[in-house]
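#data-curation
PF: Archiving a pair of folding outputs for the training set. Convention for this channel: one message per protein, sequence first, structure tokens after, nothing in between. First:
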Amino acid sequence: MKLLRPVLLAMVFVGAFYFFTTYRSGQFHPANWFGRASNKVEITEAAVSEPFDSEEQNNISVYRKNIDSVVNITSRAVTFDFFYGLVPQEGQGSGFIIDKVGHVLTNYHVIADARTVKVTMHNGKEYSATVVGSDRAHDLAVIQIKGSEFAPMVLGDSRNLQVGQKVYAIGNPFGLSGTMTRGIISSIRPVQEPDGMRIDEAIQTDAAINPGNSGGPLLNTHGEVIGINTMIASNVGQSAGIGFAIPVNTAKAVLNDLTTVGRVRRPALGVQTIPISPELAEQMGLPADSGLLIVQVVPGGAADRAGLHGGTERAYLGNLPIMLGGDLIVAIDGQEVQDQQDLSQVMNSHRAGDTVRLTIFRGKKKMDVNVMLGEARQQV
């Protein structure tokens, strides 16, 4: 018994030493007495990937259908710096292929004053491009890359677009190629671009459009081009939910001119007109309370050749001298015309050489007159 006490006392000291040096320091794990504890993290995984819903499937379809036809455009121009002389300046934008021989539609401001233009496809292949034609008034340009069997995009119809309609924008915002955003048509309205040019019936959208998207396509849910993205309304230089696109029908009206003669043969009626209000119509004794009254016909112009009449009786509209007695235009191709803006919209969908049907009043007599549009050498 006396021999057992020192042994028990020694075991107590050893146990106390082990407790304070191992267990209290965090290295003591009771589980280790029976085997090493597992360090595996338990997570919850989906059994099977859920299928895409119909909306997601359409998003993917629109993207895959068109991404190979959307290109990145890099233009290099030369500007003059007071201290350094001529300085190269590089800009970026987007565009899309419109035919199998490599014509690419984009914005005029993307390639304006460019000395060299480079096109990069979605697969990374690069081409040198030449400027085929440009139209500053509509902010449109056509460039061409050399090759064969390019995949063109399908050009849709921008008539009868509705606010609330879903749209997609594909382009290269901030140089990030192959980007698609989605939104709706927020409004159809006339807007003025920073350089002063006016876009009639511009498509306003909340689809995110940023620098680098310019010239890229705006698509409907069928993947058809309904507009060309051109500008944003923002105080910070990037998307604030208000972007604008040029209606594709405006582009289609000038594509033939841009690709064949390099410029737009802008159509003109060859008339000077004033808009008629109900008050003016009553004062002048006109048979309709709206329309455009022809005060002068340009000699040799389209209207003159078609036999339209200008005014013959001198009068004053306030302090403005005008000529009364001319034909009153009330419609073109069945579309009502009330002011110069209506006339401009009609002209934007035509080119020189097209024939339009004018509905006019000559005196009290209503008649239709076919007019072959001339080319606008100057704004008349």
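PF: Second:
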Amino acid sequence: MIQHFSTLYAGHVLEGEAIGFDGTPHDDRRFDNDRLALSFDIAKDLSITMEALGYDILWMAEHHFQREGYETIPNLMMLSVWLSQFTQRLKFGCGFNILPMWHPIRLAEDFAMADILTQGRLIFGVGRGYHTREVETFGAPMRDADANRELFEEQFEIVMKAFNEESFSHQGKHYTLPPEVPYRGYELNDITLVPRPANRPVETWQPMVSGSERGLDFMAKHGIKGIMLGTAQEYIGDWMHRFQAANARHGRELKLGENLALGLWCYIDSSAEKAKQTLRPVFEEHVKFAAPLGMLRYNEEQMKATGPAGVATHIAAGSNFDDVIQNRAWFAGTPQETVNYLQELQDKYPGLEHILIGFPMGLSKAQFKDQLTCFAEEVMPAFKTANVSA
């Protein structure tokens, strides 16, 4: 049953900006340093609000160089340690640490230290990246999808060794760890992560983007949990069944929807029409940002054209707001309609426990805090009460 409610804040600072197709062109935006750092205070305010309202996890996204103000959080572990000082219970999700932009041992060290300093309130998440400006600037492949995945998979193997083994070594295509060098009078042949995470095994999440068999098999092999966000309903069911089947092949029997989180770009109002009226320019801003990066996948026509990560690269169908409302890649409705939709999902996917509410680019902090409050007061009790009764 659905029982965990969380939020994604990717770090946008578009407060007061002209958004939508008639607003400022995304590549024309240039914010000063104070504005770009505003995401930290927004995250703090959201954390305090979410804890008071009973939410479980604030997911945040790692990104770099985004002077346009869309995703402005470069280090999730540092920010999470700071946010933990203002909360007691709320967890912080790395959604996601982009492995190709890290040395895997440095990422393992930073996460382990943050896990200890937050007293176990940090959740590990990994991704492959989708911005060439970010990934290629850090010296890793992005345009070559096979090379990107190959590097990612080797890096993940190293991180897991570092987390789980008291000492380890690794020899692969990209890394030889430790190097074969003398150290204090002996030949170095293994190393130890200092410190290791407080909570092991480390719960790990990854975004489900293209639903490829290779990707699903990799997740199942390592017991990685998956997050879907802004995914049309026709793909949700397919991916859930194939995720379940992939885990079964690796000896892990899951209920349909288990170990998965479903994210919604949504807006709640007194009527569906009012909600759609608010959401339309916000969706248009999302299209301005996402379509040139190959991130829209709202119908079969778009799925025919694939980019580096195996997702659609064309803008045409994905820019149709009515279509994405119809196929529930985005959702607009009243509180009761939202409850009804989540109950439909719960009935279809009895193992689904996690619902994630996205903070879409273009909504103000005040608007989104109102949404968090409305959702917590008028939607969440339908599931929290049911869980207590069960």
